[in-house]
Design goal:
Two copies of one chain form a homodimer. Chain A has 363 residues and is of the alpha/beta class. Chain A is built from twelve helices and 18 strands.
Chain lengths: 363, 363
C-alpha cells in the first residue's frame, strides 16, 4: 500500500537482485525505516526481534532467508541447517514451517546456481501468492462494505477493527484491512475505529500508522470503548483478522476480539473475520478446547512503550512489584461470527460454510 | 485504609479548620503525595484533573468546595455560581449534583458565618455518611463472596474488577472493593484480577496500588483479557462500581464495564455492581438514552503515563497527528447485572429490586 503516496510492500528483493529489503516494524509508528537483509543470520534476527511480524509476512521472510542461505552455501547440509535455524525463530508459527517446506520441495532436486535461483523464485512466488490472496479478500470483503454504504448516502461506513491485520502483517493489502483499502481506493467513504490493542498496542502503533499513511480516515480508541460505540450506533460493522480458524469457524485472534464479538451480537452489528486459507486449521473443530493460548511476559502488561521527546522509551504503569498475567489470544466461537471473508469468498462461520468454499477439505 | 501502617482517608479537613486535604491521585502509583485545597477554583481543578476521582469522593469533594466558596463569599449569588461551576466539572456522576444539593438545602436559610459553618458541617457529614455506607456495602457484598468460598475449599475466590471502585474512589473502604477487604480481613482467601482500565489506567495505578498496600492478592490484566479468563473458568464473580444507577437498574460505569458484563453473561459468571444510595438517580429509568456520556481529551488515549528511571513521564503510543476518541463511561443494561450491592443490602437490578430496599422512592 501507499506510504504518503509512495507504494511499498513489507518485503522486497533489492535492485542488486539478491538482498532483501524490509520495513523495520519495531520502530513504528515512531520512525519509518527500512532494513536490508544480506544473510541467513540477519533474516533470523529480523524475525526474532519482530522487525517483521504477522504470520503471512513471517513465512515469506523465512523463504527469502533460505534463499540467502543457499546463496552462500547451496549444499544439502547447509539447506537443512538453515531450515532448522529459521524454524527455531518463531517455533509456534505454522506458516513459517509451511513456507520453508514449499521452498525445500522446489529446490531439493536442483544444485548450485539452479538451486539458488529456484529458491529466490519460490520465495518471490510465495510473496505474490500472499498478495493475490489478500487482494481477493479485499475484493470479497469490500462487497460487504458496499452493501452498508448503499444505505448511508455519503456518510462514511464505520468499521471497527482490532489489532493489526493490515498490510504490515502481510506482504501487501492485509487481511482485515484489505477490504477497507479496496473500498477507500474505490472512492467509497470509510472510517476505521482502531482498537489500541493492549498489551502490545498493535492497533495504536501499526494499524493507525498504515491507515494514516495510506490516507484512510481513522480514529484510535481504547479497547474498552467498542461496546459503548456499538450501543450508540457508531459502528456499522466489525472486521478483524484471525491467527487460526477451526473448520467449524471458531476464531483464535488477538486477546479482546471475543469481547467485541459479544458486543456486536448484543447490538446487531455484523462481525466479520478475514480468514485466508492459510489460517484455517482443518484438523481442528473446537477452538475453545483445542487451541492452546500463548501466555507472554508480564512486562508487556506492566510497561507501555512509546516516544517521549523523540526517544522511544518504556514506562511502568503499575506499582513496583505488581503481578501481571498476559494471555495473548482468545477464541471467538463461531456463533458470534457473522461471516468469514476468505480469499475464495464470503461464507458462514460453520463447517458447511467453509466446506462450500474449500470443497477439497470436505470429509 | 492503611498506607504503610498509617491510616488515611482520601479527603479530610486540615488542622487549620477550613482548608481541605486530599491524596493527589494523579501521582499514584508512582508517588504518594497529598495536596491542600484552599478555594473553589482549586477544588474544581482537583476534580477536573482527577486529583480526586470516583463518584462518592467527587461528591464529598464538591461539598467541601462549596464550603470553601461560601467562606470567601457567602451570598446566594456566589453560592449558585459555585454550584454551577462545580456541577460542570464532571457531567456523568450523579453524586456530585446530589452532594451539592444536600449542602445547598442545609445552608439556604442561613447567612454569613452560620451558612459557612453549616456548609462545612454538612460536607463533613457527607464524608461520614460515605464511610458508613461503604462499610455496609462491604458487609452485604462479603456474603456473596462467602457463598462462593463455601464451594471452593481453601482455593481463593477469584474476583474480576474494573477501574477503581476501591477506597481511593470513596472516602474510605470503597464500594466494589469494600466486600473484598471485608472478606480478606475475615480470613477468607480472595484473589482479584484487576483490569488496567485504559485510558487512564486506574486499575493498574490505583486498584493495584491500594490492594497491594493492604496485602490483598491481586494480578493485573489488560482490559482485553477478561472475556478469555471467564471462558476458561478463571473468574468466580465480577464486582464493579457505578457512577450512576437508574431506578430500573441500568448502570453507568467506567468505559469497558459493559464488555465485561456481556462476557459474564455469556459464561454464567455473576456480575455484581456495588451501588451506594448516592449513586442512584431516581429520576431516570433508561440509562441507555438518559445518561450523558462524558468525552474526554484525546491525549488520554494517545499517551500513557508511567515512570521511567524514577521519573513520571507521558509517552506517545500513536503516530504523530493520530486522531483519538475518548468516551469515559458506558452503560450496562440492568438485564446483564446479576444483582446490585447497595448499602441497604443486595437486590435485583430492577425497579422492584431497588424499591424493595428504598421504599421511600417507590412511586
Amino acid at each position: 500500500m501507499d506510504i504518503n503516496g509512495t507504494h511499498y510492500r513489507t518485503i522486497w528483493l533489492e535492485d542488486d537482485g539478491w538482498s532483501v529489503g524490509i520495513i523495520d516494524q519495531t520502530l513504528l509508528p515512531h520512525e519509518f525505516s527500512t532494513a536490508r537483509l544480506t544473510s541467513l543470520e540477519e533474516t533470523c534476527v529480523a524475525i526474532e526481534t519482530m522487525q517483521v511480524r504477522g504470520a503471512p509476512l513471517i513465512g515469506v521472510t523465512a523463504a527469502y532467508g533460505l534463499a540467502l542461505a543457499l546463496r552462500s552455501d547451496s549444499s544439502d547440509d547447509a539447506m537443512f541447517q538453515a531450515i532448522q535455524r529459521l524454524t527455531a525463530t518463531r517455533p509456534t508459527a505454522v506458516n513459517l514451517q509451511w513456507a520453508l517446506e514449499r521452498v525445500r520441495k522446489a529446490v531439493e532436486k536442483l544444485t548450485g546456481a539452479d538451486r539458488i535461483s529456484a529458491a529466490y523464485a519460490k520465495a518471490s512466488g510465495l510473496a505474490e501468492e500472499d498478495v493475490s490472496a489478500c487482494a481477493r479478500i479485499g475484493r470479497h470483503g469490500a462487497e460487504l462494505i458496499y452493501e452498508v454504504a448503499g444505505g448511508k448516502k455519503d456518510q462514511p461506513v464505520q468499521i471497527l477493527t482490532h489489532c493489526n491485520a493490515g498490510w504490515l502483517a502481510t506482504v501487501d493489502w492485509g487481511t482485515a484491512l484489505a477490504p477497507v483499502y479496496r473500498a477507500h481506493d474505490a472512492g467509497v467513504p470509510v472510517h476505521v475505529w482502531v482498537d489500541e490493542t493492549r498489551p502490545r498496542n498493535q492497533g495504536a502503533a501499526l494499524t493507525m500508522w498504515e491507515l494514516m499513511a495510506h490516507g484512510v480516515p481513522c480514529t484510535l480508541v481504547v479497547d474498552n470503548a467498542g461496546g459503548h460505540m456499538m450501543q450508540k450506533g457508531l459502528v456499522d460493522l466489525c472486521l478483524v483478522g484471525t491467527d487460526r480458524t477451526t473448520r467449524r469457524g471458531d476464531v483464535a485472534n488477538k486477546i479482546g476480539t471475543y469481547l467485541k464479538a459479544l458486543a456486536a451480537r448484543d447490538n446487531g452489528v455484523p462481525f466479520y473475520v478475514a480468514a485466508p486459507a492459510s489460517s484455517i486449521d482443518w484438523s481442528l473443530d473446537d477452538g475453545m478446547s483445542g487451541i492452546e493460548i500463548e501466555q507472554r511476559s508480564s512486562e508487556e502488561v506492566t510497561q507501555v512503550i512509546g516516544r517521549n521527546n523523540g526517544e522511544v522509551q518504556a514506562v511502568e504503569i503499575a506499582p513496583p512489584g505488581a503481578k501481571a498475567a498476559n494471555f495473548a489470544f482468545d477464541v471467538t466461537p463461531a456463533r458470534l461470527v457473522t461471516a468469514l471473508v476468505t480469499d475464495r469468498g464470503v461464507c458462514p462461520a460453520s463447517r458447511e460454510g467453509l466446506f462450500s468454499r474449500f470443497p477439497e477439505h470436505a470429509a
